[in-house]
Amino acid sequence: MAQRTFGDIAVQAAPEGFSATMATRDVAALRLVDVQSTAARVNGSASRRAGWYLLFNRGGACMLYQRGRTVGVEDGELSLLRSDESFEIRFAQPNRMLVVCLPAIGAPGAMDDRVARRHGRHEASVVGALLQRLQDMGPDAARQMDPATLHRALFDLLMLTPPRDDPGQPALPATRRRLLLDRLDGLVARYVSDPDLDAAMLGRALGVSVRHVQALFASQGTTLGTHLLEQRLQLAARRLRDPGKRRERIGSIALESGFGDVSHFCRAFRRRFGCSAGAWRAGA
Known about the structure:
Layout: H1 2-6, E1 9-13, E2 20-27, E3 30-37, E4 40-44, E5 51-59, E6 62-66, E7 69-73, E8 78-82, E9 87-91, E10 95-103, H2 121-136, H3 139-143, H4 147-160, H5 173-191, H6 199-206, H7 210-219, H8 224-240, H9 250-256, H10 262-273, H11 277-281
Antiparallel strand pairs: 1-4, 2-3, 3-10, 4-9, 5-8, 5-10, 6-7, 6-9
Helix pairs in contact: 2-4, 6-7, 8-10
């Protein structure tokens, strides 16, 4: 089913394994796919069908990569990906989203400006309400819908407001800074276990420069490296004491927590907590 809908995709599972479910429904020549997935990286190849995937996030968060852009999409938000270009989606935690396959025919040229851009909850709420109505619609009502009218309605709703990360949107400096700090904290918390997380990735997700990301951490008296190390150590410490992970190797827990080098993890853990990871697990 996944290949018929999305073409060739490759899934890189988290160390603890991978599972996913897909429920598909077609309404007026529009395919809606309800996807639930555990943590993973999904790489998609260019489909032969030109158009877009509208991704409406309904639980958890994800990072989208396409056309050199990176965007973080949280619960209640949406974004777009071109279906005829390669893409990557990362879920650091279990996630649920509704994917709508939009055709290229009849789409406004400005749709490409929305690729890998973030529509926040306010912008996404009306689109989300329409999609929910389509999912709940009975088969008789669905058959009476005109495909061209439905497609045009979705395109119009997406064009009504600019993406939230549009740099042209006005914002008071203090308000924008507070919003950026809140978004930054949320992104780090959600993707702390991703070993590739860096200032460039965060900057692309926030729509700011690497220097701006560094300045945001500096305003809180820290650096990205220091903050990430502390968050990853705290995550590993919680997992080591988790009864459900008693049989899991310490090296696996280190990798799950975002450390690319187990030796570095062991040294950093001892410095931070004053004992080895094994002693910490034993309750020292």
